[in-house]
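Researcher: Go.
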Amino acid sequence: MSLLQFSYNNCLNDKNMNQYKGLIDKIDKNSFINEKVSNFPFLNEVDNNIDDIIRLSEKFSKKFNNFCLLGTGGSSLGAQALIGLIPEPRNKNFNFFCDIDPIFFQKSMNSLKLNKTGFIVVSKSGSTPETMAQFGSLIQIFEDLNLMHLVSENFVIITENKQSPLSNIAKQLNIRIINFNKQIGGRFSIFSNAALFPASIAGIDIAKFKKGGKDIFEDLMNNKNINPIEGAAMTILMHQLSNININVIFTYSESLRNFGMWHRQLWSESLGKNNLGTTPIHSIGTIDQHSQLQLYLDGPKDKFFTLIRTNHFNKGPIINSSTFNQGELDYIAGKKIGDLMEAEQNSTLQTLINNKLPVKEIFIENINEESLGALTMHFFLETIFAGIILDIDILNQPAVEDSKILTKKYLS
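Model: Structure:
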């Protein structure tokens, strides 16, 4: 059985279905796939050896139980998506510092035992201002506390192998540098050491994660899996034909909460160009059933829904029977919490379908490293094919550069 099972409802009518099938046939050619897809460097990461990553992560993890990852955007979200698979509490505690809220950062640093904390600083360019500001603040704190002699042992830097502010400082302070693949952008780095190194420290089986991704990729290349092509074609056609320009991903597992954030960046930065693209929204079941579902059902019909479901049946603690087996609560008495989650994800899916809203369902029997790798690769490929359909370069983000220039101006 495939790790990912797909189904669609209410997406295209008979007339539009012909256009959809024509687009699928146009893209679904082995020669085309080999030419356009197989050469993306970030896809080839699933084949790379991970022995060095595991060895370095084991060596670093032995020193500390508490870790902080400094990085923003794709330099952090990939690791967050992976480490999010493990519920709290973990053997290794991870803190992610993705922004530069000064109050939060100051309080967090004050609460840490710095001499017993490992820091992973991730910046592909080696000059990301937010990450460099965090790193610089930490160095100042270490200096103020007369802890500079610990810096070389407590820090690991992940950055490109080139001259940059971060690499220069790392060499000056004798901090180990792990090379960030210069051919891969941050949002595409989840199968690389940028995400795998911290994930391995946290206890994630990164070999199984890569296997899940590799299996999906190989199935595509062997013409056994066109799900990513279908997903891209469906999304783009519904936008073009029905003005459905918002993609809502509903995840029904805490293990996928951070994955939703990772996907949001992937889709937005890769496809939001030339007045094209659709807006990704991540909704968390069952939380957002009580905050957004009213809008989704009774608001503008401009949304395409993807529900990522898993099997929650008969899982979790039992709800007390003697106290709850009365009145309005008797329907949950004696059930497990997972039974309620199972019922709610099924009811949300069916309600969307009954309201004639376009829905893609992805069912995952067990959410683990392998299935997350498969899901990640699927959306990598879906993004690539959407870019091919729209004739968009998914690798750049030119509009963001204007903001970076203005930031420097305001600080001058």
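Model: The chain has a mean pLDDT of 93.
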